[in-house]
């Protein structure tokens, strides 16, 4: 299997962590950012959106990070990260979808302003609003984790924790005033105890 995308991308790291949790051999190729351009024809043939990551395996190419993670778990996971029962699976996927929509939308402006230093993301009011919304979203996650006492969807580590674990890492590593969320911090410590997590959650890569 090939993973196309640079390792600083949080979406690429979702896929890499999933592969490592499943013990799947793979090779990563640098695309995007300052590496190979994703608008060239051979990349667009794999993902017409010109975005990373892209997974290429014996069946072809796939794009959209959460979809790639679901595919890997379903095809290779034997029910460990994504169970086959409809209700159990839905409880996991709802948190994956929440991460991709509500949580990502909350952190985007503040992260691009404070970490990426992206031109045009320098409005103090917009930064403050993003931080407030981000902390509110993480507070919601904190309540869920306090309820389960372990992981996002229950007592067992699942694919939801791959996407939310990296989002939690991003929240903790971004220089903002963090809400006091003890369940989130305990959750992060549990994730760091997993061998596959720390390589994709380094302090220098929020």
Automatic annotation (TrEMBL):
Highest rank taxon of the organism: Bacteria
Which Gene3D superfamilies has this protein been placed in? Answer: 1.20.1050.10, Glutaredoxin (3.40.30.10)
State the InterPro entries in the record.
Glutathione-S-Trfase_C-like, Glutathione-S-Trfase_C_sf, Glutathione_S-Trfase, Glutathione_S-Trfase_N, Thioredoxin-like_sf
What are the protein's UniProt keywords?
Transferase
UniProt domain GST C-terminal: residue ranges = 85-206
What does the record give under GO molecular function?
Answer: transferase activity
Pfam short name (any one): GST_N_2
The residues covered by the GST N-terminal domain are 1-80
Q: Which family does it belong to?
A: Belongs to the GST superfamily.
Cross-referenced PANTHER family, in alphabetical order?
Answer: DISULFIDE-BOND OXIDOREDUCTASE YFCG, GLUTATHIONE S-TRANSFERASE-RELATED
Protein name in UniProt: Glutathione S-transferase
């Amino acid at each position: 299997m090939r993973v196309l995308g640079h390792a600083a991308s949080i979406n690429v790291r979702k896929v890499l962590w999933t592969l490592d949790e499943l013990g799947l051999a793979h090779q990563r190729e640098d695309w995007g950012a300052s590496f190979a351009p994703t608008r060239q024809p051979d990349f667009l043939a794999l993902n017409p959106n010109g975005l990373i990551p892209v997974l290429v395996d014996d069946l072809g190419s796939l794009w959209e990070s959460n979809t790639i993670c679901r595919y890997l778990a379903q095809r290779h996971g034997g029910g460990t990260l994504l169970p086959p029962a409809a209700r159990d699976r839905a409880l996991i996927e709802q948190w994956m979808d929440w991460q991709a929509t509500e949580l990502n939308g909350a952190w985007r402006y503040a992260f691009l302003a404070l970490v990426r230093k992206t031109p045009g993301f320098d409005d103090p009011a917009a930064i403050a609003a993003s931080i407030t919304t981000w902390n509110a979203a993480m507070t919601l996650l904190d309540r869920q984790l306090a309820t389960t006492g372990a992981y996002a969807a229950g007592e067992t580590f699942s694919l939801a924790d791959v996407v939310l674990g990296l989002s939690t890492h991003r929240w903790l590593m971004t220089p903002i005033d963090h809400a006091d969320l003890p369940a989130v911090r305990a959750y992060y410590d549990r994730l760091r105890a997993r061998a596959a997590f720390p390589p994709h959650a380094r302090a220098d890569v929020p």
